[in-house]
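Task 17 of the worksheet. Students: predict the tertiary structure of the chain below and write it out as structure tokens. Keep your answer in the requested format; marks are given for formatting as well as content.
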Amino acid sequence: MEIRQLRYLVTIVEAGGFTRAAERVHVAQPGVSAQIRLLERELGQELLDRSGRGVSLTDAGAAVLPFARAALRAIDDLREVADELAGLMRGHVRLGMVTSCGVPDMPLLLERFHRDYPGIDITLVEDDSHALVDQLRDGTLDVALIALTRKDPEGLTLSVIADEAVVAAVGYGEPLSDRESVGLGALEEHTLISMPVGSGMRDVLDEACTAAGVRPRIGLEATNPSMLARLAARGLGVAIVPESTADEHTETVHKVRIVRPSLRGRLAMAWRTEGQRSTAARALVELAGGVPT
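Model answer:
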């Protein structure tokens, strides 16, 4: 069994087929296919189902995949430890980021990281928090910036780097624009503009509404908090946004605190509790803790 065979297997699954995998590893497709056949012959099991239009894992392949990923992580860790002992700082970190997250400033974070550790390559993945948590758990990602709800995800260690109120934003002259606060239950009477299902802020809103027996009427959805505020400024509804977003749009929207209960949005750097973090991942987590929000 060779390391490249395991790497090819993982790449085929992540890329969705032999052709794209071959492009990623810069090897001709027949060479990739031949190595997978050798791996299957050694294990005595077919790992990939090639009978359909695409390629999918067999039951044996699904059982082997986590171990293949773990083996590759171990090899990467071994190389990074050797580099550290030699006084080097090389490696690769796979970073996830919650969709349309503006806190902290991710380009600024990556700029500082690259300046401090120019030998470390970064793969950046953007997705909703639920998907990022799954990718952390299965080892696809090393570390991720995720949005938290009332219940922290199990199996992950968290470093909270942002914690702020979630508020309502309304256009001037619209209902609630003369209010400083509004009860969560009263929002039933208004059309809401919110992040989509799967986003951390939407989870916070939905969990609070469920607990309070409130049935919100979501009229519009957008993935960018600033867009929510801009839609509210046009009189299209009440935007549910982070307080910092409302503060950035004070010329066009009025900020209303949500009470009974109040809502808070939290962002955290997260990584697997079990298993060794790579040197690169540890360096990124440490740097993120010092980035201003």
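Marker's comment: The first strand starts at residue 48 and ends at 49. The domain at 1-88 is CATH 1.10.10.10 (Arc Repressor Mutant, subunit A).
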